Amino acid sequence: MTAYDAIVLAGGAAERLGGADKPGVLVGGRSLLDRVLAACAGAGTTVVVGGRRPTGRPVTWTREVPAGGGPLAALGAGVRHTTAEHVLVLSADLPFLGASTVGALLAAAGEDSREGALCTDPGGRDQPLVAVYRAEPLRRELALVATEHGSLAGLPLRLLTAELDLARVEAGPLDSFDCDTWEDIATARARIREHGTVLDEWITAVKNELGIDLDVDTGLLLDLARDAAHGVARPAAPLTTFLVGYAAAKASSGDAPEAVADAVAEAARKAAALALRWEEEAGATKSEADPQ
């Protein structure tokens, strides 16, 4: 993947939220800012433009001048702290932005003749705060706009994007979903609890809370829990999965995350086989007691 730095714009007055600290609003137990930071975890340097607040990983903090000067001024402040050839620019209110969309933007921006790439939402509207820009033309255009207008404060982003040759990447309906109102927040909170997404959202939140950077086969663990509950007893499900995690941690202490994931898978396979043996044994005992 193309090396990049990231700038996350986390300022603004959030007037439609009654002045609430929008980047700090929780969706699925994680702040909006942390959800965005997770999508750009591959950045070499991540700069957050806005007031300091707790984050799930280290970032570089800066502020636009004057404070509240708008997204163009914030972008100008953030880019001073970046060194990579490509700069990912994101707003801090994108609860469903995924790493795959970041990768698509980086790939499109990496084309030889392009000066960057931005997302377009399902309505075809450009999203300049879900974008990747080449650093050199970005700095050039920011300097030209500042010279022409005296400063970047209060200016619209289109003054920048109109002068750059940008590729367009179609975003999914959720990737560009931003939270401007409490209704948007309520929609996001309801969306993560839907049947098809709630487990992934919950596991991600738990790993974030516990400081675990590990991808495991959740399907394998769910199958194990089912087998233990069905073949042994219902309380066996959570206890068995706990013991699998403990065994994996003990067997792979100090190893890379990939080795830990392999250890989880191996322990889960052993425990699942044991649960099936218990079930078979119970069935055999019943048939022996009632040989009809």
UniProtKB/TrEMBL annotation:
InterPro entries membership: DUF6457 (IPR045598), MobA-like_NTP_Trfase (IPR025877), Molybde_CF_guanTrfase (IPR013482), Nucleotide-diphossugar_trans (IPR029044)
Domain of life: Bacteria
Domain MobA-like NTP transferase: 6-142
CDD domains: MobA
Chain coiled-coil ranges: none
GO MF annotations in UniProt: GTP binding; metal ion binding; nucleotidyltransferase activity
Keywords (A to Z) from UniProt: Cytoplasm, GTP-binding, Magnesium, Metal-binding, Molybdenum cofactor biosynthesis, Nucleotide-binding, Transferase
Residue ranges occupied by any DUF6457 domain in the UniProt entry: 195-282
BP terms from Gene Ontology: Mo-molybdopterin cofactor biosynthetic process
Residue spans crossing the bilayer: none
Protein name in UniProt: NTP transferase domain-containing protein
Record organism: Streptomyces finlayi
